[in-house]
Amino acid sequence: MKKLSVIIPFLNEEKTIKTILDKVILVDLSSLDFCKEIILVNDWSIDNSEQIILKYIKDNSDKTEFKYIEYWRNYWKWYACKRWIEKATWDYYIIQDADLEYNPEDYINLLEKIELRKLDFLYGSRILGLDKYKNTYSTKTFLFWWLLVSVLTSILTFTKVTDEPTCYKLFKKELRNLLISPKENWFEWEPAITVLLLKKWFKYWEEPINYVARNFKEWKKINWKDWVKAIYTLIKRRLF
Hints:
With 240 residues, the protein is α/β, with parallel strands linked by helices. The chain has helices spanning 17-26, 49-60, 77-85, 106-116, 139-157, 176-179, 189-199, 224-239; strands at residues 2-10, 34-42, 65-70, 92-95, 121-125, 134-135, 169-172, 204-208, 212-213.
């Protein structure tokens, strides 16, 4: 069977980490001849996330293959993930945020499409899935920023990209060395790797996904400074 590595970085997600793990485990990929491994990356959580995770792994190790690592300082999301991309035993790799904004059931459609179209990488687009989109706050503000980043990505790479900042980026294992090459370690890794792969003409596609946004009271971590950094990274990576 082929394997999908689901890398879940988390920072103080004690309220949602167990629920998202239940959702990931329940996704049945056997019809696609796939199995899963779950790689949990604790990026220096100071709440009860670690205790919850360790108990969860103990109780569910018979259902899914788990790997767990804890960092003793906050290395930022993509630094933590890149270390595990090197070690993952995967045919395909996807990041799963530990909050409940993304629905793991979308794995099935994403894997079907990347295999059917023989793609190198595929993005799950929240924009294409707007008929299913639910948002409880600041819809216009966030929609403006991620549309701006996506439009700029399209212009700079001559490729239609509707949702560059999406979490659901699905990559095949042959891209491993390129994925860990950018020096960017926070949200700006995403525009950096997008530009890098599209400049090299790797085969790319987008599929609609479900999305339910959380608000700042629920500790949403991205802010306007990250969007500015993303735009700067896009221009820097494409032009220089």
